[in-house]
Amino acid sequence: MYGNYSTSVFLNLGKDLPNNRYKMRNQLHTVLGASGASGMAVVQELQKRNLNVRAVLRSGKKSEIETINADLLNPQETLRAIEGSSHVYLCAAVPYNAKLWAKHWPLMMENVINACSQAKANLIFLDNVYMYGPAPLAVPFDENHPQQPISKKGVARKHTAGLLLDAFENKKVNGVIGRSADFYGPNSVNSQFYVSFLQNMLKGKAPQSLVKPGIKHTYANTVDNAKALVSLALAPETFGQIWHLPVGKPITIEELTELFNQELGTSFKTSFMPPVLRKILSVFIPIFKDLGEMLYQYDTEYILSFEKFKKQFPDFEVTSYQQGIHEMVKSFRK
Fold first, then answer.
1. For a surface tag, which of 78, 206, 214, 231 has the fewest beta carbons within 10 Å of its beta carbon?
2. pTM across the whole model
3. Where are the domains of the chain?
């Protein structure tokens, strides 16, 4: 969840229209934050469905396709990026810092809501689950879980989602919220399974983790998230609601390490950082402080339920961890 807000826009019109071409040919699906792993996955899913796509990229990403710059913290530039869209996917990121989240997430959301309202575009928001609390959460927890966040970033996300829910209720904009668990997948440089984990393993070093060992957790695959978000976007009956996106079965870090070992042909054991050392480092290294407030998710089982989504889309197939790890490793080996 790192990066800045300077973006570029390119238009990629699919050559083939889907069966309901008369309806779809007038749709334009715009992805905000398309340079991130989640946004890239949404763009790819839209292209697979032969839908018209506009991708909004972070600055610094070079492309052979014509681009224009935009800043999602600037209302005029946000409107310029969104105008003409029928569907807008908010997959953008804010640097992983509590102060920036509190300041920039609501501003970005307000700009995107206003732009979607003017463009009459449906807004699909890729959210997380930080707003649920107090800890420990129910096992499993669903969309109706109390929202009493114990972290500053959780407070910021609750406020940001609230702005969109108010916009839904007041008929300012139509759309849907899809909430993702901690994610992994192709090109996921901000996944906890890349930084100091897969990143180390690819260098022949043991993976490291800040979390408490032995705790079962559920994880979302970015490719599954993309498929789920597009499915929600194309089903207007799901609008105005919150939906938990699909996850794999509950699993521990140690079990996931073994799956990475199988893929890489290695035999590493994960090195877990002691809580005392974590607290010491948080005094000197700001990112440890921001990560530390979220580690309550690993004090007890943290199991997300997506039963509501399964009932709506019973044929949806969740990617196995083994397959997802294969695709993730392959993307970084490139």
1. 214
2. 0.91
3. 6-183+222-246
